[in-house]
Amino acid sequence: MTEYSDLIAGYQRFRAEEYEHERERWTELGKGQSPKVMVIACSDSRVDPTQIFDSGPGEMFVVRNVANLVPPFEDGSGRHGVSAALEFAVTQLQVTDILVMGHGSCGGVAAALSQSFADQAPGEGGFIAHWVDILDAARTRIVAEHGTGPEAVKQLELEGIRTSIANLRTFPFVPNREAAGTLRLRGAHFSIADGVLLVMDEDGAFTPAA
């Protein structure tokens, strides 16, 4: 497993090889960024959007959190990490696409389904429970139709993507750009076990990427 010393060794290789090879590109990136795509992905260590989409530095604006969730718009004084990143990407970087990417074997989604951290104090699972309860309404529908087994987990992973996209549209600056044709919301699901990427169509159905 990678340890901190491995990270430093990796940096040294990167600095001596890739950075020097792409020095001109890094110099340009030092002046600013202009990605066209924002990706909202899971924090899971197995699911790196830049690796999955074979992209380089400066090409995607990425936000990662437990279960790749977007909370609904709230006009309050709390700390809104996802909301701030979304606001910056849309209003300042003016990205043209936002992709919510879920994945197979998602621990956050499994926790939402099992409610294993419910009623726990912060530091003992309470933060996780309050975050994944964004999926409570979707969970109710999935449990009613699929129970709580492996198929339910997969279906809740997909429903979580749909939920986050619906929540994106609660932010005032998103739907007006959608209506103007300057912003598109997209969904995808990556299977860790077999490498298959499912993409969501306009009706919310998922099919393998061409």
From TrEMBL:
Give the transmembrane ranges.
none
The cofactor named in the record is: Zn(2+)
Question: Record keywords: Zinc included?
Answer: yes
The family database entries (Pfam families) matched by this protein are listed as:
Pro_CA
This enzyme's EC code(s):
4.2.1.1
Xref: SUPFAM superfamilies? beta-carbonic anhydrase, cab
Q: Extract the GO molecular function terms from the UniProt entry.
A: carbonate dehydratase activity
* Catalytic activity as recorded in UniProt: hydrogencarbonate + H(+) = CO2 + H2O
Keywords (A to Z) from UniProt? Lyase, Metal-binding, Zinc
**Superkingdom as given in the UniProt entry:** Bacteria
Q: What does this protein do?
A: Reversible hydration of carbon dioxide.
Q: Which family does it belong to?
A: Belongs to the beta-class carbonic anhydrase family.
Name of the protein: Carbonic anhydrase
Recorded source organism is Sphingomonas hylomeconis
